[in-house]
Design a protein that fits this description.
It is built from 11 helices and 8 strands. About 2% of the residues have low confidence. 59% of the residues lie in helices and 13% in strands. The strands form 2 sheets. Strands 4-3-2-1-5 form a 5-stranded antiparallel sheet. A 3-stranded antiparallel sheet has the order 6-8-7, with helices on one face. A hairpin with a 4-residue loop joins β3 and β4.
Length: 381
């Protein structure tokens, strides 16, 4: 038991001696006071600047200057942490310590400063994002709105890469050129291992340049029918008509036939109106005239696409009237409401005219029917 107690006393003495030799030994009290004052001053100044910048941000927002307001708010949200990180660097520069401990503190403080600056840069990404979004909404440019989230993710990725490279440089004390060369070799290996990811990334670039669809539009692709919700760096998210969210990889999507329903200028309806075979030519012509009258200058008719009505065919069990008409603008539910109105009016007027609709039937004639005598050839044996 006495040995254990002695060992603990020795360890404690070693710890105290280490601190006294490396930090406390040659440092006067005023150095630690300056360190504490620097940190406390950075905290107070940071909070004051943050309060002032947030008030300025609200003022700019009320003056309809969203970009300046967002930039000011981004700086306000990160200024305190950044100033505290810088105060650590200034304060600990006055503290005397051994070379080994100094190296550890320099690396740690360098990491904190890099993180603080990267955090501020990540917040400031909102500035180019808002500017691109405002520019994309203008009528005199070709920039797509969906490029905005892609640009935001790309900028944040670049900031993270630069921060990591800077932290590696602080830790290794190697020149940036050597680090970049090493990252280039590593990047090649990563690129070979991530071919599918790169394929989908470049697929998103092709989709954004060709613009086969935009966010909010309805498309049909590879059996998926739904609304585009987001075009990401790797996949496009489609909300189908059942409410399910489906992610389609951009590399695959760029090689598929895409039917953009939202971009159709009108909705076309093709209708076959079938009437019975015992309808007289006069009644059939009356039916054609009824349909033409119902569709004459109808609601939603495109000027260059008048309705088409023809006695088109002799079916197995009916006479066929082919009806084709178009509806614009291409609002699906408005078109369905017009179709319903047309169907009700067509049914009413055909019933008033005594024109019967046909349905699949089969007529069987008996051999003894006097109206349809069968010609039976008799052969002598």
């Amino acid at each position: 038991m006495d040995n254990i107690v002695d060992d603990k006393k020795i360890d404690a003495a070693i710890d105290v001696n280490f601190l006294q030799e490396n930090i406390l030994g040659d440092n006067e009290l005023w150095r630690f006071c300056i360190l504490g004052a620097a940190i406390l001053g950075a905290l107070i100044i940071g909070k004051c600047i943050q309060w002032s910048l947030l008030r300025t941000s609200q003022s700019l927002k009320s003056k309809n200057r969203p970009i300046s307001s967002a930039a000011t708010a981004a700086i306000a949200n990160t200024i305190t942490f950044t100033l505290i990180a810088i105060s650590f660097d200034i304060g600990f520069a006055l503290i005397k310590m051994g070379p080994q401990l100094r190296s550890i503190f320099d690396i740690a403080i360098g990491f904190v400063i890099v993180i603080a600056l990267a955090r501020m840069a990540m917040q400031l990404v909102i500035v180019p994002e808002l500017w691109l979004e405002r520019f994309a909404k203008r009528d005199d440019n070709t920039l797509d709105v969906v490029l905005v989230p892609l640009a935001r993710k790309t900028l944040r990725g670049i900031i993270i890469v630069f921060a990591v490279v800077q932290m590696i440089q602080i830790f290794s004390k190697e020149p940036i050129s050597s680090i970049l060369a090493g990252l280039g070799i590593g990047g090649l290996a990563v690129a070979l291992a991530a071919q599918d990811t790169l394929k989908h990334f470049f697929g998103s670039i092709f989709l954004l340049s060709d613009k086969p669809f935009e966010v909010g539009q309805r498309v049909v692709v590879d059996g998926v029918d739904g609304i585009i919700e987001e075009i990401g760096m790797r996949s496009t998210r489609i909300r189908n008509l059942d409410g399910h969210l489906i992610a389609v990889p951009n590399g695959d999507l760029a090689n598929k036939a895409i039917r953009n329903i939202a971009k159709r200028p009108f909705i076309k309806r093709t209708l076959n109106v079938t009437v019975t075979y015992d309808t007289t030519p006069e009644k059939l012509q009356e039916g054609l005239d009824i349909i033409k009258d119902l569709l004459k200058d109808h609601e939603g008719m495109p000027k260059d696409y008048p309705p088409r009505v023809f006695f088109s065919d002799f079916n197995d069990w009916s006479l066929n009237i082919l009806v084709i008409y178009w509806y614009t603008p291409a609002n699906y539910w408005d078109a369905q409401a017009f179709n319903e109105k047309f169907n009700f009016e067509l049914l009413r007027r055909f019933n008033d005219a005594g024109i019967e609709f046909a349905f699949p039937t089969q007529t069987v004639y008996a051999a003894g029917d006097p109206n349809r005598k069968l010609a039976i050839e008799q052969r002598s044996v």
